[in-house]
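RESIDUES AND SHAPES:
===
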Amino acid sequence: MNEKTVTPLVLLVDDNHASLYALEAVFVEEGYQLATASSGQEALDLAVTLDPDVILLDVLMPDIDGFEVCRRIRATPQIAEVPIVLLTALTDTQARITGFEAGADDFVTKPLDRVELTTRVRSITRLNRYRRLVAERNRLEQLVQLAPCGWIVCDDQGRIRLCNLRILEMLGIEQEESLFGTEFSALFARDDRERVRLWLGAHGQAPRPPIECLLACLGSAEKLSVELVVGAFEHEQHAYNQILINDIGERKRLEQVQTEARFRTLITGASDLIATLDTERTFTYASPTSESVFGIDARALIGIDLLARRRSRSASGSL
């Protein structure tokens, strides 16, 4: 199918140049795009190159007859589903059976009736385009459902209209219907909801940068660190937002590990004492210089109360 235009592309195949010219005249008037071939092999080559919306194929040709061309087209995955109408002067039942067995979709008997021919081609191209649109939609839906990130579509009021399986897994939900109509911002931790709502509603600020927030898993206290990416689109004169929800929990954990490693490298080489305390003033970390300050190994300080340590040092006449 010609993807660059909505005008159907018809491939006309006939070894008789007068017949080919007559077919061209008919379909030019009907507004179709046309390609022509005068042999079976040329028809096969053009079909692969152009992927037409329909092929009108003469049966009686000297090099490769229409039946064999039809069989070869059906055996070629790239063009196997292109509709084929056989044009033939053969009127016997066996010829029609052979044609249908070869993969033809329809027959038109010569001499051709212009109204009959154009009506059939119009009907076939319309059905074929619809079939291809449905197939394309099904492929897109499969890609969305199998995507490794969450996917949600919201209307202009921020209500959820579509979602994929991954976001259901992230939220701990089994039925997608339970999400439909829910306000998108309600999926997040309470402290993030207003920020998400304002971000999603900022239609005039394009492009909207990604944001990070906490996704609330329903039915549990667990929260996932996620990154939100949004894109706006219109469908049937209505505005929608498509949001990708990426789980960045592992990335956050790696960043924390790297930050802690850099921190430890920094303080390990410091000449002054560096220590961390919890809310009870108990040591949770002490740098190696603690031995020169307290006279005790850094690891032995972990869990010791600072004030108790200072009282002990004061009683002994030292810090």
Summary: The radius of gyration is 36 Å. The chain has three domains: 9-141, 147-250, 270-313. Residues 9-141 form a domain with the Rossmann fold fold (CATH 3.40.50.2300). Residues 1-5 have pLDDT under 50 and may be disordered.
